[in-house]
Amino acid sequence: MTSFFRRLAAARGSLTKACNKLKDVRDQSPISIADVQICKDKIISFNNRLEILNKEIEANIDKDDSETLDDEYAKVEEYCDQAFESIALADFLINENKTKKLNTESTVKLPKINLPSFDGDVLKWQEYFEAFTIGVDKQNISETEKFQYLKASLSGEAASTIMGLSITAANYQSAVDLLKNRYGSKTRVIRAHVRSLIGLSSPNIKSSSSLRIFIDSVHRHMRGLEALDAAQDNDPIFLCEILLAKVPDDIKHEWAKLPEDKMNLEELIRILENESKHQDIMSSTKSDTIQSLSTKRHSSPIKIKHMNHSLVVQSSCSFCNSSDHATFSCHLLLNKNPKERFNFVKEHNLCVNCLRKHNIKDCFSTSKCKKCNRKHNSLLHFDTTTKSSNSNNQVNVKNCVSETSKATILPTLTIPVSGKNGIEQVGILLDSGSDRSFLSKTMAKKLYLQEIGNEVLDINSFNGS
Known about the structure:
The chain is mostly helical. 50% of the residues lie in helices and 7% in strands. A hairpin with a 2-residue loop joins strand 1 and strand 2 (309-313). Helix 1 (3-26) packs antiparallel against helix 2 (33-54), helix 3 (66-102) packs across helix 5 and helix 5 (143-153) packs across helix 7 (169-183).
């Protein structure tokens, strides 16, 4: 590498370093205007030095080496653009600071508005250009600075549109006109909206989010067409047919049931809106149900409130403290005689009716003894014979517990149960003395429950009765 190209590379590196320093100062809070001015002065100085060296490039490259010459001229343009963009940024920051000082009496602090960007999407042109016009074009800055901001805000196809124009005041309006002619065509925008409607993906009728995305897309393109005065008398009919080809059959059937004078685009969108709300409610109800069931499943003991009372369902055997069976099915308890069982229940303050930890007066079980039809568990029934010392008569005691009340309370609940076909409201009967849960075959079919196995149950009462 010759001495000239070393000096050229050093000058370019100094310019890049000064430009990066300016960006760092811009990102500070608060911004130091003094540092901004220092960076600007350095950028101008390095750029002037670079311009002198640029004039010597052709003299230091072999005339036959056209490829190297073209590369160097491309770099000249690149570093020139970098310098102009940084100088424009410095001027903007300085002017912005002056404006803030002039408006110190204002107590309202507005958020910083970012420079709009545009990548060539014709549907975004109008929004972009209006934001650019307010944020840059109408500001009190030079045409050259406006051109710098314009180039910085473009990308992709849009940036390629004005690539050949040098950053000068004279070329700014030419660049704007090029962009407006390419992306501001009313016919082109209308066609883009119609193509987007035709290209919409069909929504999933079981998904509220899918329906909402579909509806929002339709509204967005409809508003775009209305803003361009493109909605003619017959257009809603054609648009309605386009959307009907996208929506599920259930929506089509509901729309087809409407009177002829209501079979229009507005009613179709209304049906879609209602279906989206319905799916959203169903989704939230399912989530709440699953959360509620999950919470109840992990709580011990579980309390179910009904008719201003509480029914406590224990999750373990009171006799052996095992969690895999209920007290009344414990084989250790069943191996004892009724009197021993009764003594155990009394010693541990269990209910003599359902064998759980509460007083019998608070028990809501409707079960009664299968021997004497009294309110105590059949496992605790035993006969006692008491002989009187003053008489030969025998008194037979048929029950170990007296019946405290003739009245019974039947606890029931209506709860949502989730299946493959949605949620069904199911009425349930709470029997605290049962160790099995049963569901009717009809309800199982409604919920589309899958059969996972078969089990044969022998249902017997005690002593064969």
